[in-house]
Structure prediction request, 221 residues.
Amino acid sequence: MSGGSAKPKRRKAAGSALRYDHRPGRSHADEPEQRDASCLGGCAAFLGFLALLVPPAVLAEYRGHALWGGFAPAWPGGAYAFAATVGAVAPLVLLAWVVPLTRMRWKRSKTRAAAWAVASLPGLAAGYLVVGVITSTWRPKRRRDWDGDCYREGGPCWVHVHYPWLWAVGLAACLAVIALLVGLFVRHVRRSSATAPSTAGPADDPTPRSPSGTGDRRPSV
Prediction:
């Protein structure tokens, strides 16, 4: 009686080494290398971003007084005309830099992609000049830093005193050029869509009509 009422024993669970198998062709040794590569890429991108900010800051620090104290007032139309020119050129410079970069296709051809990258460098250099000219009119954030050098001829404080609406003129010129570019782009898209070849087949030629005007159709009885 006791032998028939005994409960069956549970099987022991398999060991962890038997339960999980590593995928073939996958090595854990590659993970640290991938992490190091991503860290290096992030550091390089950060340093490149800092390098982009250095030239405009240097231009604004050492050439700002000469730019707005002598060059801008001598521009045809004065300093306000110079500000309008800078504002109008800013969107064009941005396009000259961005458009070649959008044509890069590394998977198709690395040579052409490198050529497009080189073609964007003039736009990048012009962008440095535009940003440097704009930042040379920025006054220090703290009012206590508006010292004698800031009010010296060509300094940021001097520019705001003699040309208080300089930023408005430059911004208006920039927006006007952007609106013009958008209008030209929309017009180009409409023209290209209107002149696109149709995929439908040619229409059938009309059948000759009979003198009675019924064509090939027979009159109903």
